[in-house]
Specification:
CATH superfamily: ABC transporter involved in vitamin B12 uptake, BtuC
Distance between the termini: 26 Å
CATH architecture: Orthogonal Bundle
Structural class: mainly alpha
Number of domains: 1
Shape: globular
Radius of gyration: 20 Å
Helix content: over 70%
Largest sheet: 2 strands, antiparallel
CATH class: Mainly Alpha
Strand order of the largest sheet: 1-2
Strand content: under 5%
Number of helices: 14
């Protein structure tokens, strides 16, 4: 088993190195690697490195959040944006612009909106100090739809050009060229992934069923609360710089689970590698398909993710 795992890790790492090199040399303008290292192209090199780091953070964070939610909610359709986090972040950012708040504070507004939405969903789903899985999912869907409707309403009635331009950000973007901002987001995302990995064995037990986990002495309700807050923190942090990117936390865990199985000690690290490859590759397509025009990254992930997920869903139905 460990020999097969080692081989898969090596293959994924080599693929990651390949897409990183491609992402460095290709873009609106293709620049050979040796030329990219010259002083004249240092700015372009730094910009592309930042995009790659952002893509790795986004892919890893969203994939691990998806794995976590699918385990604790025992729902294969669960993913980071299921609980209304993305729509809450988007709505808060739009409201901030409507109120005349500087666009420099948009990441902070998005973060606060994401956290507020998860708190609201949690409060709605709470039943006598317990979190019902079905109630949590239903509350998340309701909040997401309601907030998304408000976003569309505010954009449609506003004459603010910045708000209309935000529709592009709401579909996702890796145009983050500030090392300090990327570092500030990397801190909670990396810590969140590490914290979730520490709960890997508990996730294995919870995914088998709440009663089975309780028999093993696991405080399922307490762990659920902790993990939901961690996934909210990861997702909210990523939304601050990337906007809304769907399907990553849905399809990557499913595909990797088919390859390596449901053991979260293995699933989490391999999914991080696979999701990083997927996000860098998607960003590469977004930058090069219609260069010099750039497609929002969320459009690429949706185009790739929707048919792949349909195939996975059909396969799962046949196996039942």
């Amino acid at each position: 088993m460990f020999a097969h795992l080692k081989k898969r890790l090596v293959v994924l790492f080599l693929l990651l190195c390949l897409v990183v090199v491609l992402a460095l040399i290709k873009g609106a303008v293709n620049i050979p690697l040796q030329s990219l290292l010259l002083k004249d192209n240092r700015v372009i090199l730094n910009m592309r490195i930042l995009r790659i780091i952002t893509a790795i953070l986004a892919g890893s964070g969203l994939a691990v959040s998806g794995i976590t939610l699918q385990a604790i909610l025992r729902n294969p359709l669960a993913e980071p944006y299921l609980l209304g986090t993305s729509s809450g972040a988007g709505l808060a950012a739009i409201i901030a612009l409507v109120l005349g708040v500087s666009i420099n504070y948009m990441p902070l507004a998005a973060f606060l909106g994401a956290v507020a939405s998860i708190v609201l969903v949690y409060a709605l789903a709470r039943e006598e100090n317990r979190i019902s899985d079905k109630s949590l999912i239903l509350s998340g869907v309701i909040i997401s739809v309601a907030f998304s409707s408000l976003i569309v309403f505010l954009i449609s009635i506003s004459g603010n050009r910045a708000i209309h331009e935000m529709t592009w950000w709401l579909w996702g973007s890796f145009q983050v060229y500030d090392y300090k901002l990327v570092l500030a987001v990397a801190f909670p995302v990396v810590l969140g992934i590490a914290a979730i990995y520490l709960f890997a064995q508990d996730l294995n037990a919870i995914s088998l069923g709440e009663e089975e986990a309780m028999h093993l002495g696991i405080d399922t309700q307490g762990i659920k609360k902790i993990l939901i807050l961690i996934t909210a923190l990861i997702t909210a942090s990523l939304i601050c710089i990337c906007g809304i990117i769907g399907f990553v936390g849905l399809i990557v865990p499913h595909m990797i689970r088919l390859i390596v199985g449901p053991n979260h000690k293995v699933l989490i690290p391999i999914s991080c590698l696979a999701a990083s490859i997927f996000m860098i590759g998607s960003d590469l397509l977004a930058r090069t398909l219609f260069a010099p025009l750039e497609i929002p990254i969320g459009v690429i992930t949706a185009i790739i993710g929707a048919p792949v997920f349909i195939l996975l869903l059909k396969r799962g139905m046949r196996l039942r």
